[in-house]
């Protein structure tokens, strides 16, 4: 659930939208805005539009039922209007463009915007996530039914029940998928290669998502209950599914809200570092107004990114700039090697991989900045804004 803004905050945000963004660092060359598109929000749609860069094109969900393709300079190439969709868009390795409808069907388009196929399967029920093999000719879909299903040209090849699955990831010939208790690896034919299952009391995998690393290692965030607190961990598993090491990310008291306090990990370009977004909750200011509901102490929220080496040692910890609790977005490593993070508020920053030092930041004054994506040459970046629902394209300093 998202926190709603007060009337004063909304008014301030609306006024500040007149300024595209403000840079915090002036001694480092900055990315500059090339263009932006406001997503249509009729019928309550696309307050957070999906957007992705692929092969010199920007694909975006620009309306509740529209997918639009632009060149990197903002020229409109094509637009497709569907009966219904979920304001989602993604691109497979072969250039096929995908969206979902009611999270029950997957619709595929050619890079030119021609519909290729629509897949609806009872084993989807509600689609959790999907991924592709290297060629992009087979996709793997997980649904709330607990099935993972393989599709080729929109037709089911196989389907396997595992129960309570998260989003799948394909890496180096294997499908990785997690539920709250186990990590599974499957071959493209649907055979389970290995399974790692948690045994600790009250232990569970956070976010039902794991991250494959170099040499087949696997990273996943884990929550354990020690009898008093919820303790957050980063696990590394070997390519054979055995336990390698455990890094303690910190703890929180369980009375303070939900237990999702660590996001999905991501790795640096060379695989030597693992980045984890962490949301630690601890007792804060005491409530003296007994008419207020909630705990005796209001929680103090601190956010940040923790960098851990591939050997399981702390490299650095960088606090974020805001106490607004938002999505647990995995840090994104850009083609330049910088670590791009959002504090789930309005600040978006680039950090050095060596020490987590901020080299520049931008503030877009929307409710939140989401999911940066980069062109292959690293010269164009795109991200989306939650409220007012915008797609923003930036130009690298190298091209200026």
Can you characterise this structure?
It is built from one helix and 34 strands. It has one helix at residues 7-16; strands spanning 22-23, 32-38, 51-54, 57-63, 66-71, 76-81, 90-91, 97-101, 105-109, 115-120, 127-132, 138-143, 147-152, 155-161, 169-171, 174-178, 182-186, 192-197, 204-205, 211-212, 218-225, 230-237, 243-252, 266-267, 273-286, 297-309, 314-319, 332-333, 339-342, 347-351, 358-363, 368-374, 380-386, 390-395. The strands form eight sheets. Strands 1-31-30-29-28 form a five-stranded antiparallel β-sheet, with no helix packed on it. Strands 19, 20, 21, 22 and 23 form a five-stranded antiparallel β-sheet that branches. The longest helix has 10 residues, at 7-16. It is globular. The two termini are 40 Å apart.
Major sheet details: 5 strands, antiparallel
Order of strands across the main sheet: 1-31-30-29-28
| Secondary structural class | mainly beta
- Runs in which pLDDT lies below 50 for 5 or more consecutive residues are 1-26, 255-260, 282-301, 323-327
Radius of gyration using CA atoms only: 21 Å
Number of helices: 1
Report the average pLDDT across residues: 80
Distance between the termini: 40 Å
Give the CA-based shape.
globular
Number of strands: 34
Query: What percent of the residues sit in helical stretches (DSSP H or I)?
Result: under 10%
Beta fraction = over 45%
